[in-house]
Design brief:
Elements (H helix, E strand, L loop, with lengths): L2 E5 L15 E5 L2 H4 L6 H18 L5 E5 L8 H10 L4 E4 L5 H14 L2 E4 L13 H6 L5 H12 L3 E2 L2 E2 L30 H14 L19 H14 L24 H4 L6 H14 L4 H30 L13 H4 L5 H13 L4 H14 L4 H11 L5 H12 L16 H7 L6 H16 L1 H6 L4 H9 L2 H17 L1
Parallel strand pairs: 1-2, 1-4, 2-3, 4-5
Antiparallel strand pairs: 6-7
Protein name: Cryptochrome/photolyase family protein
InterPro entries: Crypto/Photolyase_FAD-like_sf, Cryptochr/Photolyase_FAD-bd, PhrB-like, Rossmann-like_a/b/a_fold, UV-DNA_repair_photolyase
Pfam families: DPRP, FAD_binding_7
């Protein structure tokens, strides 16, 4: 039986035991390069990491065929047809963790008579089948139940059967505003390499009209593109930012992008780092140095809890989520969300962060961008596409649950009990954005949503206070809020 192994942009694992001496096809497949006008830095990141990976695996495999995005074989159906015409009868692949890509591979192989051999992946801690008991066996799919199971299963931060520190989560301690005169840790940029340079030129040549600032040596963020660079990046986080990750993980600063966040997801989501490596590094640091339990638990929760939870939701509920629109939001994505000209200071500043780097942290995504898009009643499909286009760490498995479930509550409550919306007060409380005209608009949109869906907010015990606060306002104030909101929406 003659076989070939396809490796996609998100499968760049350092462990080569499963592909040693294979005939490799390293593919800039359409779904990762051509499906949308992806951010220039995401395209360049994939190009640089893949070309570096090509050199990394070359001594260990039988042959490498590198397929560029602008060539016919970047289409999976065409590639499988090509392989079949060259007497390949078995395809070796890692699990794709991508519904569209998986369908393409299976349909292509079925039509050409190729067998599929799935080889072990390192992208997640849990195999998909290991998650079935939770996601198929529970009507309530809330994260905190899943997270407790994960802690027990992987025996992390446990003292016997009880959680270290006496509680499962210290999230209540992790909501501090960043102190006014505190200097955030300096992020050490990855070294600029010939792979970065070549990828930047390649992106401008073939994707020059895409969104975002290009990859450049003088950018304030240069992402790691090899396993060694990723390990250095991880070490920098655990040594300099982990200890205060917890208290400031929800903090927002208008002129800061990273603060104490790890910014590991670009590398984690393509295999340059694995969750096992990240957990090991964090626990080693905690063993040798004092890491407060709220920071240690808070970060571990992101890796073994939220990331694995999103993976499971996507696999078992993703198709249902991506077809949902419980609030019947229909507005297309306004142009202002692509150029940072909505007129709302926190939204525009956050968009500029994303345009310059392909990144902003999770609270900015949820409580600035997602929150405001919900208040503007933008269609969840448009929100999904926007995040897919502009974020360097965005993949289908990431964005379907996070957008349709968490950010836009389009699934009606599969993963949470209420939509994550707020007025301007929350943004000002958690950030250093100054008050301004944007507050009046934001609050108008917020109260408009409460008014429009008053029965829902009144009858949900977690949102009843929102409805009560609206009903207590006098008629003149209500009319003023609604008028401001309608004026803004009319101009979007």
């Amino acid at each position: 039986m003659k076989s070939a192994t396809i490796i996609f942009p998100h499968q760049l694992f350092a462990d080569l035991s499963a592909i040693k001496n294979h005939s490799i096809y390293l593919v800039e497949t359409d779904l990762f390069f051509n499906q949308y006008p992806f951010h220039k830095q995401k395209i360049a990141f994939h190009r640089a990491t893949m070309k570096a990976y090509e050199a990394f695996i070359e001594p260990h495999v039988a042959s490498i065929h590198y397929i560029e995005a602008h060539t016919p074989l970047a289409d999976i159906y065409e590639l499988i047809k090509h392989l079949a015409n060259n007497n390949i009868d078995r395809l070796n692949i890692y699990p794709t963790h991508d519904d569209w890509l998986n369908q393409q591979i299976r349909q292509g192989c079925q039509s050409r008579g190729l067998d599929i051999n799935t080889i072990p992946s390192h992208l997640f801690l849990n195999k998909t089948e290991d998650l079935a008991a939770f996601f198929k066996g529970h009507e309530n799919l809330f994260h905190h139940h899943f997270y407790q199971q994960q802690r027990r299963r992987h025996k992390l931060l446990m003292q016997g059967n009880k959680p270290c520190g006496g509680q499962w989560s210290f999230d209540g301690e992790n909501r501090k505003k960043y102190p006014k005169n505190k200097q955030p840790p300096k992020l050490k940029k990855a070294n600029w390499t010939s792979y970065h340079e070549q990828a930047a030129h390649y992106t401008e040549e073939y994707f020059g009209d895409h969104y975002g600032f290009p990859m450049a040596q003088d950018n304030d963020l240069i992402y790691p593109i090899t396993h060694q660079q990723a390990q250095t990046w991880l070490a920098d986080f655990v040594q300099h930012r982990l200890a205060e990750f917890g208290p400031y993980e929800d903090a927002i600063c208008f002129d800061q992008r990273v603060l104490n966040h790890s910014l590991l997801t670009p590398m984690l989501n393509i295999g340059l780092l694995t969750p096992k490596e990240v957990i090991s590094a964090v626990l080693s640091q905690a063993k040798e140095h004092h890491i407060p339990i709220n920071s240690l638990e808070g970060f571990i929760r992101q890796i073994i809890g939220w990331r694995e939870y999103i993976h499971g939701l996507y696999h078992f509920k993703g198709r249902k989520q991506r077809c949902s629109n419980a609030w019947n939001h229909q507005r297309p994505m306004p142009k202002g969300f692509y150029n940072g000209e909505t007129g709302i200071d926190p939204v525009d500043q956050t968009i500029h962060k994303v345009l310059s780097s392909g990144y902003c942290h999770h609270i900015e995504r949820l409580m600035v961008l997602g929150n405001f898009m919900f208040l503007c009643e933008i269609h969840p499909k448009a929100v999904y596409r926007w995040f897919m286009e502009l974020f360097i760490d965005a993949y289908d498995w990431v964005m379907v649950p996070n957008v349709y479930g968490m950010s836009q509550f389009a699934d009606g409550g599969l993963m949470s009990t209420k939509p994550y919306i707020s007025g301007s007060n929350y943004i000002r409380k958690m950030s250093d954005y100054a008050s301004g005209d944007w507050c009046e608009v934001w609050d108008g949109l917020y109260w408009r949503i409460i008014d429009k869906h008053l029965d829902y907010f009144k009858n949900n015990r977690r949102t009843a206070m929102m409805a009560s606060n609206w009903l207590r306002q006098d008629t003149h104030k209500k009319k003023s809020h609604l008028a401001v909101a309608e004026d803004f929406l009319a101009g979007l």
